[in-house]
Amino acid sequence: MMQFTEHIQVRPEKFGAVVFETLSEKVFVTNKTGAEILCLLEQHKIPEEIIAQLARDYGCSPDLIKNDVQEFIADLTNHALLRSDSPAKAGTKSEKKDDK
Amino acid sequence: MIENELRPAPTQTIHSTQGKTTSKGNIFSDYTAPLFIAWQLNAACNLECLHCCEEAGHSMPDELNHDEIMDFCRQIVQLQIPYVAISGGEPLMHPDFFTISEFLRRHKVTLKVETNGSFIDRSVAKRFAQLGFRSVQVSVDGVTPETFEKLRIKGDWQKAIDACKYLVEAGVKTEIVFVPTKFNCHETGELIDMAYRLGIYGFYTGKTMRIGRAAQNWDILCPSDAEYEQLFKVLSEKQNQYDGKMKIYYYPYDVIEELKYRLEYPSASLLVIPNGKVKLIGPLPFICGDLRKHRLAEVWERYQKSWQLPQVHTFTQKVINDPHLLAESNRWQELSIK
After folding, report:
1. Which of A20, A24, A51 is nearest to A36 (CA)?
2. Inter-chain touch A22–B18, beta carbons under 8 Å
3. Residues of A in contact with B33 (CB under 8 A)
4. Complex ipTM
5. Roughly what angle, to the nearest 10 degrees, separates helices A47-58 and A32-42?
6. In B, residues 160-199, which contact A (CB 8 Å cutoff)?
7. pTM of the model
8. If you measure CA to CA, which chain A residue comes closest to B78?
9. How many Å apart are CA B151 and CA B222, to the nearest integer?
10. E-strand spans in chain A?
11. Rounded Cα gap, residues B51 and B290, in angstroms
């Protein structure tokens, strides 16, 4: 399961969302699509579910958006905003399996 | 303090094909509400520090009452303000301090408190731990009682150190804030070493702000350029020494440099003083809102408009040219905002 790290605050904004890492006092912003991903992460969706959900919402192929979603999640993880309780690689089938 | 550091703008594919808006958030007015509130809860303080920005000591006659305070807290939650720092005066002297803290933490607002540590014993430290404060910041301005108590009149160095020990024992992220002056600069390195031995999470310092009581005592407080140069050299060395072990934060700019920057890039934060008035920024005397008259959402709009006022720009330029005017920072002037 992926979850935000301890000091993270996420707030929707007109432009998308703001992610505030309140321990380091760093602010990150993202657009509406990023905000949708954040919202799905808050609901504890795994990367594959997020990809599937966005593909449905936008009426496009999951393959078209897979890399972008995975990159965004990797960015969040690299900035210690998000952590995975699973040792599996983000966005892979094995993670989905493990998380379930 | 708060900057946009990264914009993980996702999925060029998605927003190019779906026509979604691109990321914003570069400027404070992009935000629907403040990201941070610095709340000076009370003016009462048991100390009479020579450098106190707020010139704290006695309560103001018109401080917000319990109902007004709780109404303000509810507005913080409604507007989803993510982060609040409570200071004073000495905030632990306020009878509602823990009621406020419990309410805000129950609604997941990140909380920090800035205290002189006088009122923190083991049971209070445990309470901070239970409430899940982001951090408790204790003022410690020297490695000896003599140095500390020269700056913090009526202060008790041992109490401040004990407060740090109790907080660390209780598992609270504890920070030390250090105000450099002519008479304690030389102890900086030793104080950082002591902080590490105490188990402190972070050590904060920067140039002393020439506002409030510090402005009145500037000649006896302000370190020389050479002393500051030495201070920043020590800080840089200690930052390397404790890399990965203890955070050492220092802000190398003075209040004038801060004002120049904020005139162009105001922060997405509000400074609320004990009577519910909202200052534009600490070093300036301007009041842009009043929680007794305006809802918090309205104060946020007024704050944004205030930074556009010619009066603010003209006075700020005057302050930049003549830092003596910083002594006016607590002689409040209400801005006329339409």
Report:
1. A51
2. no
3. 11
4. 0.88
5. 140
6. 173
7. 0.90
8. A11
9. 12
10. 2-4, 8-13, 16-21, 26-30, 82-84
11. 26
